[in-house]
Amino acid sequence: MSQLYLVGIDCSDCGNRALDYAADRAKFDGSKILVAHVIEWSPYSFNTVEENAKRHKRREDELERAHQEIINPVLGKLEAQGIEATGVVRHGHIAKTLKKLAEEHGANTIVVGRQGQSNVVAQLFGSVSGTLVQITDRPVTVVP
Amino acid sequence: MKPTRCIAFFIMLFTALPALAQEGVDERIDQVVRPYADGVAGFIFSSFPVAGVQIPFVLVWLLLAATIFTFYFKFINFRAFRHGFQLVRGDYSDPMAAGEVTHFQALATALSGTVGLGNIAGVAIAVSLGGPGATFWMILAGLLGMSSKFVECTLGVKYRNEYTDGTVSGGPMYYLSKGLAERSEKLAFLGKVLAVLFAIFCVGGSFGGGNMFQANQSFKQLVSVTGGDASWLADKGWLFGIIIAFLVGMVIIGGIKGIARVTSKIVPFMAVIYVAAGLLIIFMNLPAVPAAFGAIIDGAFKAEGVAGGVIGVLFQGFKRAAFSNEAGIGSAAIAHSAVRTNHPVTEGFVALYEPFIDTVVVCTITALVIVITGTWDPNVDPSQGVALTSQAFETVIPWFPWVLTIAVVLFAFSTMISWSYYGLKSWTYLFGESRFMDILYKMLFLSFVVIGASMQLGSVIDFSDAMIFAMAFPNVLGIYFLLPVVKKELDKYWADYKAGRLKKFKNT
Prior knowledge:
The complex is a heterodimer.
Chain A: E1 4-8, H1 13-29, E2 32-40, H2 49-80, E3 85-92, H3 94-105, E4 109-113, H4 119-125, H5 128-135, E5 140-143
Parallel strand pairs in A: 1-2, 1-4, 2-3, 4-5
Helix pairs in contact in A: 3-5
Chain B: H1 2-20, H2 25-44, E1 47-50, E2 53-56, H3 57-72, H4 76-79, H5 81-89, H6 103-114, H7 117-130, H8 133-158, E3 161-162, E4 168-169, H9 172-183, H10 185-225, H11 237-252, H12 257-284, H13 289-301, H14 309-325, H15 331-336, H16 344-351, H17 353-372, H18 386-394, H19 400-431, H20 435-454, H21 457-470, H22 472-498
Helix pairs in contact in B: 1-11, 2-21, 3-8, 3-22, 5-16, 6-16, 6-17, 6-19, 7-14, 7-17, 7-18, 8-9, 8-13, 8-14, 8-16, 8-17, 8-22, 9-10, 9-22, 10-19, 10-20, 10-21, 10-22, 11-19, 11-20, 12-17, 12-19, 18-19, 19-20
């Protein structure tokens, strides 16, 4: 049965482990992969006037760079393995945005890497995987 | 190249130090600048007598405009209040536009440019000169000012320039020139003249209220917590000025983004602490609150012992409200114009919150604290400004002056950063974009920081007021011609909103 895996990557090590995991499954059952990179951003942050004036341009640059440096290399790797994959870059709260993307694209499973923060950090700020498990209505695979 | 330029500037300042470090430098700077400052102030505040009080024309001008806008847009300040909140909350923000400047961010940025010393020092001055009754008129002016902000911020977004590199630039210079030209060919010339006048005054305002006043008041507060006249700092305004100028220079010339970013994050936090402390004092004195409101309302209509009677009270309240929330001045239109929206009028709704938060909420809290704690005694030296507010808080929270000092310095700093941007935009509107003009403006800006810190309060306040209020002449005059444009935008949008034709993304 063909499925759609949504893989959240932040270009660090753990993201790639999630990707490898999803790639293995996809090769096995012919599933597709949607690679997502979320740029941490809040609509309620405080900026200077100058930051605001340049924001539109900055956003385009950020999206462009994320596609060039994170998404495209990954898509290339997946294609080389014969896996059908697409990529997406968004701004927002990481867990909430992944949840939304899964719904939009009808992903069956969300795959993320464990960030491995210390207990204190996780307690204070929460973790992407922890939050995601709580808010989404679909299965989440956390790759250690 | 940037750090080196900073260092060069620092060295330059310090080579000037031996000349400055003589006795009475502050006095000498004050002596030299004062006649000019007084002259400018006298001109802008040309007044006419009403019931024995000299009423400056500019205040009538601002207030009349705010009242006309309120009626012309059928009390937009109240009827769009709820919708403005929905917009700030992001109910109507397309998730696909995530990463762009949101309504909340535009509002927060504009607020950090206005919430500051006007709310702390200005209110203290108003209450000590006009009695508690000044608060009433201040609140009224704040409510009416919401309509002015609505108009100018809508226009700011509508006529902003979007450059090929993706940056945006908006404000009165653009809506006055482009907007009036669009109305008719005959008005094009007037629009150009008004835009240039606005830009000139805005540069002046960025040196005055957006700079000298801030440097001056934050220094006064620093001296007062470190021991008043006996403080080692007492006659070293120039030194404080140089330090602040250096820090501001690091941000605006050195491009050290970190400082600006950190400030923009701490300032809202300090504002919350200030408001919380104010509310705490009010709650601790809850039994005194009805009497305080009584004094405010009583004093608004029958003023005893206040120069100029009721008109004098009204004048103090209106003046400080206008100075604090800058409605009708045009500065906020620059800050609000960066928002990403398909409907310029939405930013107008959001901008309603600026005078509301600034004047109706924060200024009122300050006024209540001063009235409740009784520190508004008319015999108190009115030139004390921020020191008076500091005293009021101190009576209940003894260590608060220290917190207030940090807040005041930070507010001053962030206001300076904002105004340096407003001023620079006006400067480049006048002289064109070039590296030389850019640096020249910034150098001038920094020297005014030092001058402001060294001068006596009276002449600083007069000059600051004058320059900021001068902006209102070209701005408001041009807006009158553009009212039908805003009306058209508003009516169309409001009909869509009422009919539910606008797409809501959240809280549906």
